[in-house]
Amino acid sequence: MTAISGLLAALSSGEIEIIDVTAPLSPQTPILQLPPPFANTIPLSLEKVSDFDDDGPYWGWNNIHTGEHTGTHLDAPIHWASGREGHSVDTIPPARLIGPAVVLDLRAEVAADPDFLLEPAHLDAYVADHGPLPEGAWLLFRTGWAARGDDPVAFANADENGPHSPGVSVAGAQWLAASSISGFGVETVGIDAGQAGSLDPAFPVHYHLLGADKYGLTQLQNLDRLPRTGAMLVVAPLPIVGGTGSPARAFALVPRS
């Protein structure tokens, strides 16, 4: 039996389960809101082309209008100044989009402080307890934030000082950039904390991770259904030529216990 036939057999028998970790994409999907004077991306909207009518009696289809960074989406290196000479979304090697999934669960810390920042100490503690992150892994930051996904106000968690959501400190972002991972996935609207604009550099995960040819993945769901290790993540963005990112479908292959 080949590796592929073995995988197909395990999928067919249910020995391996496929878990979708993608947020549904609709006009109600929360999107990042930058303060003035910065420009913002647009939410998803559908424009009917035909609907089994005179414009197309046997078919229905739509034009889609949305931004590259709407909903569950991949951040490519050229999304940020530090990575602007790097890969656009269409040139990311496909092998970098599939890899071991490692779930880092810090829900308790985020429940106590929505502005919680992941520090090197948290990452070093994980490595001390469980060993190094696998080469090419996707580190998935489980914060419990996905539970807010149906409520844009709660998801943004904003006040007069801007949004408050968990993320990574400057030193933590440097740790991730120097690691062997392919990418970093979060449940929040973006890969940086809500207050990351006040850090130095601003938005340090974007700055350090994308500048190191690693990738971001946002607005994940169902991380509670993944084991800490042992799953494989598959990330499937659109290969937009020259794209700085893309809405993506992401799913995990999880062995049944």
TrEMBL record:
Pfam families given in the database record: Cyclase
Transmembrane segments: none
InterPro entries to which the protein is assigned, alphabetical: KFase/CYL, KFase_sf
SUPFAM superfamilies with a match to the protein in the record: Putative cyclase
Protein name from the UniProt record: Kynurenine formamidase
Lineage: Bacteria, Bacillati, Actinomycetota, Actinomycetes, Kineosporiales
